[in-house]
Amino acid sequence: MNKVISIHLHGVAFQLEEGGYDALRAYLDNAARQLDGNPDKTEIIADIETAIADKFTGRLTAGRNVVLTAEVEAVIAEIGPITNDSDSASNDKAAAKSNAGPEPTPTSSNQPRPPKRLYRIKEGAMLSGVCNGLAAYLGIDVTLLRLVVAILIFVSAGTVAIAYFVAVIIIPKAETPEQKAAATGPSQTADDFVRMAREGYYEGIKSFPDRQARREWKRRFKRDMRDWKYNFQWQPPTPPNVSNPAGTCPASSAFPVATPLLSILKALLLFAFWFVIFSLITTHAVFGIHLPWGLPFWVGIILAVLAYRAAVAPVKALRRSYYYRQQGRPYYWNPFAALSQGLLTLFILAVFIFLADHFFSGFHQALLGLPDCLRNIVETIQQWWDGR
Amino acid sequence: MSLDDKFSALRKGLLEFLLLKIIAADKVYVADILRQLSGTEFATQEGTLYPLLSKMRRESLVDYEWQESEAGPPRKYYKLTAKGRDQLGDLSTYWNKIHSTVKGLGP
């Protein structure tokens, strides 16, 4: 299994195996070093990149859109080392007085992109990667999709759950690098950004009156582009700006009790949340106040959920950042930590419900009434749906 | 030391002359040039050719134009300028002189 990295060579998108990307990166960096001081450096590198793109295209077939490391190495060997002409530096005068040749026209950026396919993606999956794959396929946020699916399972009384398991069976899992690349498509944000910037660049280049200015513009653009792509794709797991990782958090040493305090705050919020839900279900009112505008109580529940999420999200983020700070690690999102935290929360919740059920008869009654209550919700939604 | 090594400087120096000859015959792009040179003593690679061609363009010996290709991005087709043609004439004369000198000396 190999990671695949998307690149552009003069408007043409390619997907390289990670090793191949490294080799190409090293080759082009070395070429740039070799050509330092050469007035045509940018252009020569552009030519070389085009030649590489040509050779890559020649090696790819319809069913295969990832360039393997060995192929990248073979292409680099074919192109050969860059030999700079030692007398190039003394030719600046010639360059200055040479009449402006035709400017390179933009190569077509609407090259056919590798087709996207629907796969299950196990990396970062919750259960089997159906939501993950579908989100990648549709280009939407996976958390949003999971939320929608969870709500649909609930609303459709399990029909969607059955559809989910059917999907697990019939949608193949992305296993080879090619399949993974096809499942996610080209790394969209990076490549789209680069393409858009490139288009802007070609628009911009027309406005420069003289060759020297255009050349400077080109050179800077190229360099910025390289740096940007490099930083974007090779973001190390620990971001370099350790000094201020979560944005506005002061050092935790000043607030040694911050983490437990935030935990207590979060627990209080959770308790308030469950009290609101509980009272909504049992009395259809919060703290004795009925919902305004005659809203059905299940709308109140949804609003309470949203309000709780909104209130708890910053507390969670703060707490996490403090926690990682105390560990001496910079804060970054860790899906596994989030998952285990979620499981822990569910477990604690289950214990609470069990105890409450055991010791409070009111809660027990409410729990017994829950199936009816859920049926009511479903029916209300169905009526609303039919009545549209 | 192999023959190749002995004449490597010579071959390197002659490459520009050969490029002028090839480009004089027809408008070509780099893959054409590589093909014509492959199999000869002057077989070379893009990594050498592009810097050399761009230097020759800076010296106004050659120029290029973009042409669409049936597959892939547009290509640079190189052609000689008037100055390049003059240069080619001078170099051919000079090369013939060298050739006759080599022949005329020794056994």
* Estimated structural class of chain A: mainly alpha
Helix content of chain A: 55-70%
Strand order of the largest sheet of chain A: 1-2-3
Number of helices of chain A: 14
Which consecutive residue ranges of chain B, at least 5 long each, have pLDDT under 50?
none
Task: Give the fraction of residues assigned to helices of chain B.
Answer: 55-70%
Alpha-carbon distance between the two ends of chain A: 50 Å
Q: What is the global morphology of chain A?
A: elongated
- Calculate the mean pLDDT score of chain A and round it: 70
Topology as H/E string of chain A?
Answer: EEHHEHHHHHHHHHEEHHH
β content of chain A, as a range?
A: under 5%
Query: Which overall shape of chain B is indicated by the principal axes computed on the Cα atoms?
Result: globular
Number of beta strands of chain B: 2
Outline the structure in words.
The complex is a heterodimer of chains A (388) and B (107). In chain A, a hairpin with a 2-residue loop joins β1 (4-9) and β2 (12-17). Chain A has helices at residues 18-34, 41-59, 69-79, 92-97, 130-138, 142-155, 159-170, 177-184, 188-206, 211-233, 258-283, 297-326, 335-359, 361-386; strands spanning 4-9, 12-17, 66-67, 285-286, 289-290. Helix content of chain A is 63%, strand content 5%. Chain A is mainly α and 388 residues long. Chain A is built from 14 helices and five strands. In chain A, strands 1-2-3 form a three-stranded mixed sheet. In chain A, strands 4-5 form a two-stranded antiparallel ribbon. Residues 86-113 and 232-255 of chain A have low confidence and may be disordered. Chain B has 107 residues and is mainly alpha-helical. In chain B, 62% of the residues lie in helices and 11% in strands. Chain B has a two-stranded antiparallel ribbon. The longest helix of chain B has 23 residues, at 82-104. The mean pLDDT of chain B is 87. The chains are: A mainly alpha (388), B mainly alpha (107). The interface between A and B is medium-sized, with 38 and 25 residues.
